[in-house]
Amino acid sequence: MHRTTRIKMTELNPHLMCALCGGYFIDAATIVECLHSFCKTCILRYLEAHKFCPMCDSQVHKGRPLLSIRSDKTLQDIVYKLVPGLFRDEMKRRRDFYASYSRSKDNSSSEQGQKVSESGEAPVQQEENISLSIQFSEDARDELQDPVESEDLEKRNSLRFLRCPAAMTVTHLAKFLQNKMDVPSKYKVEILYEEEPLKDYYTLMDIAYIYPWGRGLYRNVGKLYLGLV
């Protein structure tokens, strides 16, 4: 019988933290010569004055050290999954930065600045509910338009309005909608923002922080689409 081994977070931290800033990886980047990883901004700043890995002294590309750096999306996804709140906090920090930059660059764009500042005053909380609308994407509607599966086509094509917990994940939303919208089991449902598939582990709260929803951002996610795979 297999036994489950629990690993303490303190044991994982050395593999999730940047040796340059001491924090968890943000935009993780890996040096291809030695496979040591750092925050992207940290290692880029370091390589402006040095041509060696800060951990093992392996030499990076002599003439163009940036060629030795590769974004490590897999590692970053692992960090976000293992460190609660890190992704949300980073997205909020970026929104605050872009809002500040936008206001300093053009003070006349008061309407946009007001929208961002309003969203920053009352960030969404996990225990809140978020309103959203959902509809099949055009490709999904075409996929369902066969004689057998088009009996409820008009019903399926209609815009649905939902109110869901902010902590609800894309995975759970997709499963719920597959049943709610009578999608045949031979299809896998995916949730789209415009034409971009959303990651399964995103919560509605994450989506609200990542994408520009406009006024009322943190209370109403806006419109999402259903795709079929």
Description:
One of its GO terms (molecular function) is zinc ion binding. 38% of the residues lie in helices and 17% in strands. It is α+β, with helices and mostly antiparallel strands and 229 residues long. Helix 4 (86-105) runs antiparallel to helix 5 (110-121). The radius of gyration is 22 Å and the shape is elongated. The chain starts with 8 loop residues before the first helix and ends with a strand.
List its salient traits.
elongated; transcription regulation; Ubiquitin-like (UB roll); transcription; zinc ion binding; Herpes Virus-1; alpha+beta
Indicate the topology.
Layout: H1 9-16, E1 28-31, E2 37-39, H2 40-47, E3 69-71, H3 73-82, H4 86-105, H5 110-121, E4 129-136, H6 138-144, H7 153-157, E5 160-165, H8 170-180, E6 189-193, E7 196-197, H9 204-210, E8 220-228
Parallel strand pairs: 4-8
Antiparallel strand pairs: 1-2, 1-3, 4-5, 6-7, 6-8
Helix pairs in contact: 4-5, 4-9
Contiguous low-pLDDT stretches (5 residues minimum) are 108-122, 214-219
Please, how many domains?
3
CATH superfamily of the largest domain: Phosphatidylinositol 3-kinase Catalytic Subunit, Chain A, domain 1
- Average the pLDDT over all residues and give the rounded result: 77
Give the oligomer, counting copies of the same chain as homo and different chains as hetero: single chain
The largest pleated sheet is described as: 5 strands, mixed
How many helices?
9
Could you give a short description of this structure?
The protein is α+β, with helices and mostly antiparallel strands and 229 residues long.
